[in-house]
TrEMBL record:
Name of the protein in its database record: 2-hydroxychromene-2-carboxylate isomerase
Family, per entry: Belongs to the GST superfamily. NadH family.
Class of this enzyme: isomerase
Domain DSBA-like thioredoxin: residue ranges: 4-198
Catalytic activity, reaction form: 2-hydroxychromene-2-carboxylate = (3E)-4-(2-hydroxyphenyl)-2-oxobut-3-enoate
GO molecular function, one term: glutathione peroxidase activity
Xref: InterPro entries: DSBA-like_thioredoxin_dom, GST_Kappa/NadH, HCCAis_GSTk, NahD-like, Thioredoxin-like_sf
Active site: S13
Length: 200
């Protein structure tokens, strides 16, 4: 059976974007398949008492500055020159994460994640505005209005909640989180450990 790497994912995390940019090479080296599990980061924070770094370290500017330095090192190491901090950050990702559940249901989650990540972290679009979301999706191979309409279906809403609750029950407190089997790893800086686990 092929090895699998599960990624607990929300578009609201710039580190999740950066992670997905470097994962293809890791997957090639390990022969692993990637499973993306859409969850709501805000729901994870609420359930676990965790906070976004910009809030968590608001009273520790040196810590926040170091977090920024580490991100810049990662970007430079991997040549991720298209990355831009979204000018509307933090963006409410509820609609686009429900959209990820729709895309998963329709069999095109990978394409959806790639496109919306680009909108969020390269193009700097306001991806909590329904008109912006619909227009972007329609310009990128999706039926934007139809997809957005499906985000209001009770089953779609319930699936995102269920995914989020299941992640919290497994010990997830932030994003990106990875699972190799039942072994959990948090953050893009753990990718070497993830690769080791996949190689065992």
């Amino acid at each position: 059976m092929a090895k699998t790497l599960e990624l607990i994912f929300d578009f609201g995390s710039p580190n999740a974007y950066l992670t997905l940019k470097v994962l293809p090479e890791l997957l090639d080296r390990t022969g692993a398949d990637l499973i993306i599990t859409p969850c709501l980061l805000g729901g994870i924070f609420k359930a676990t008492g965790n906070k976004a770094p910009m809030i968590q370290y608001a009273d520790a500017p040196a810590k926040m500055a170091y977090e920024h330095l580490e991100m810049q090192r990662f970007i430079a190491k991997h040549g991720l020159t298209k990355y831009r901090l979204n000018p509307h950050f933090p963006v409410n990702t509820l609609a686009i994460m429900r959209g990820a559940i729709v895309a998963d249901d329709e069999g095109n989650l990978d394409d959806y994640v790639e496109a919306v990540n680009r909108a969020m972290w390269e193009d700097g679009l306001k991806m909590d505005d329904p008109e912006v979301i619909a227009a972007f999706l329609s310009a990128n191979g999706f039926d934007g209005p139809a997809l957005l309409a499906r985000t209001q279906e009770p089953e779609i809403k319930a699936k995102l909640v269920a995914n989020t609750e299941a992640a919290v029950a497994r010990g997830v407190f932030g994003i990106p989180t990875f699972f190799v089997g039942e072994e959990m790893f948090f953050g893009k800086d753990r990718l070497a450990q993830v690769e080791e686990a996949l190689g065992r």
